[in-house]
Design a protein that fits this description.
Helices cover 23% and strands 30% of the residues. By secondary structure, the chain is an alpha/beta fold. It has a single domain (2-204), classed as Metallo-beta-lactamase, Chain A (4-Layer Sandwich). The strands form 3 sheets. The protein has a 6-stranded mixed β-sheet with strand order 1-2-3-4-5-6, covered by helices on one side. A 6-stranded mixed β-sheet has the order 7-8-9-10-13-14. A two-stranded antiparallel ribbon has the order 11-12. Helix 1 (34-43) packs parallel to helix 3. The protein is globular, with a radius of gyration of 16 Å. It comes from Heyndrickxia camelliae. This is Metallo-beta-lactamase domain-containing protein. Its cofactor is Zn(2+).
Length: 211
């Protein structure tokens, strides 16, 4: 399997497309610019199987309906943020988009607990990693040594916790107990910015150095 990072929207939110040799794919966090994402998928002849959301802030959900309707695929989100998709006051767009509301249709599938999720030929371990938001999750692909971490952990930084329902202590606990417990060679695919690894962040991230 391989993945492609596609920054989308004003905040350059990282959308990821994970695909296998059969051209099936999973889409993570289609935050904006649905036409651009569809053009890439069509060009590569990829066949989406599902949309997985690491969390439901507005910059991670903006193109959800465009992709869902075009490819007729289900959308997964954690139960703690299921109602954020339809509520601009919860997903942050009212606060940060000068009154512009970004909402999408309700999710098709609800993540309720940490478990192994299988979709077609793809298998993920769901890790609950709240703190940046109450329903933040990370998707770990063991056979690729890769975790789709959303806005939990960045290169040299961590997710912001000054947004409504953010909690820095909870976020640091999520990173320590869930992400840093992964093998040190694990590649971390963050919601913004460059790709990193667990090993690099343990050594160089000032927020978690020494854990």
């Amino acid at each position: 399997m391989e993945w492609r990072q596609i920054p989308l929207g004003l905040l350059q939110t990282n959308c990821y497309v994970l695909y296998n040799p059969q051209k099936d794919c999973i889409i993570f966090d289609p935050g904006a610019e649905g036409e651009k994402l569809i053009a890439y998928l069509e060009k590569e002849q990829l066949k989406p199987q599902a949309i997985l959301l690491t969390h439901a802030h507005f910059d991670h959900i903006g193109a959800v309906d465009e992709i869902r309707q075009y490819y007729k695929v289900p959308v997964y989100v954690h139960e703690n943020e299921a109602n954020w998709l339809t509520d601009s006051t919860l997903n942050g767009s009212q606060l940060f988009m000068n009154g512009r509301s970004i909402t999408v249709s309700p999710p098709d599938k609800i993540i309720k607990k940490e478990e192994v999720l299988s979709i077609g030929g793809f298998t993920f371990e769901i890790l609950e990693t709240p703190g940046h938001s109450p329903g933040s999750v990370s998707f770990y692909v063991e056979n690729m040594n890769t975790v789709f971490a959303g806005d939990t952990l960045f290169q040299g930084s961590i997710g912001r916790t000054d947004l409504p329902d953010g909690n820095q202590e909870q976020l640091l606990n999520s990173i320590k107990e869930k992400l840093l417990a992964l093998p040190k060679e694990t590649t971390v695919l963050p919601g913004h910015g460059p790709v990193t690894s667990i090993e690099k962040e343990v050594h160089f991230n000032p927020f978690i150095n020494g854990y």
